[in-house]
Specification:
Largest sheet: 8 strands, antiparallel
Order of helices and strands: HHEEHHEHEEHEHEEH
Shape: globular
Number of domains: 1
Radius of gyration: 18 Å
Strand content: 15-25%
Helix content: 25-40%
Number of helices: 8
Strand order of the largest sheet: 1-2-3-6-5-4-7-8
Distance between the termini: 9 Å
Number of strands: 8
Length: 199
């Protein structure tokens, strides 16, 4: 997937003047193509060039960054989050109740690991790989990064819309699965899997 460059970034004033429209479009895009809810507490947001563009623009707006060197530094970091060929990359967001202790509630989610959060296509399972898996990663907040890597046979199976596809947390403490993925979401994720490797 082609990396974001300085040419892709709007000037701060131009983005700020159109932010409401960009934000609305971004939310619609996520809901239709990139966001998957698993039960009442977990949400996967799959990242691609379009989702990261909005993240970068928001960061630059809030931090008031406009110097090319500093903007490029942020782009370099965010570009690492773009999916590579055969890989889906997602943010895992945890909904936390306002009436509970954050530390205690986040401790519950330490049980999550690659074999407990899987993509199922028919009867076939593709495990996830947590990129934020160190203890210090797990204790810092409600968002984590994970990947799903699909080989050629799994990509073909995922592209067969006759087979239902959904995400499952296979753990007795949180036994939930997403609704079957829509055709729009599957086609969008297939584009990620078929992207060329970044240079």
């Amino acid at each position: 997937m082609r990396a974001l460059t300085l040419d892709d970034v709007l000037p701060l004033s131009e983005f700020a003047s159109q932010r409401r429209e960009f934000f609305s479009a971004h939310c619609r895009y996520l809901d239709q193509y990139r966001r998957v809810r698993i039960g009442p507490k977990l949400t996967l947001v799959f990242e691609n060039r379009q989702t990261l563009w909005f993240r970068v623009q928001e960061l630059l707006r809030v931090a008031r960054l406009s110097e090319p060197e500093r903007v490029q530094s942020e782009l370099d970091w965010y570009n690492l989050l773009l999916p590579r060929r055969d890989t889906l990359q997602a943010a895992l967001l945890i909904d936390v109740s306002q009436n509970t202790c954050l530390t205690e509630e986040l401790a519950f989610w330490e049980m999550l690991h690659g074999d407990s959060l899987v993509l199922r296509v028919g009867e076939h399972k593709v495990p996830s790989r947590f990129l934020t898996c160190r203890p210090e990663d797990r204790c810092i907040g409600t968002a984590h990064w994970l990947q799903f890597t699909l080989d050629a046979a799994e990509r073909k199976r995922f592209g067969d819309l006759r087979q239902p596809a959904y995400f499952v947390v296979d753990d007795p403490a949180y036994p939930h699965q997403s609704p079957p993925l829509s055709e729009d979401i599957r086609q969008s994720l297939l584009q990620d899997l078929e992207s060329s490797d970044r240079d």
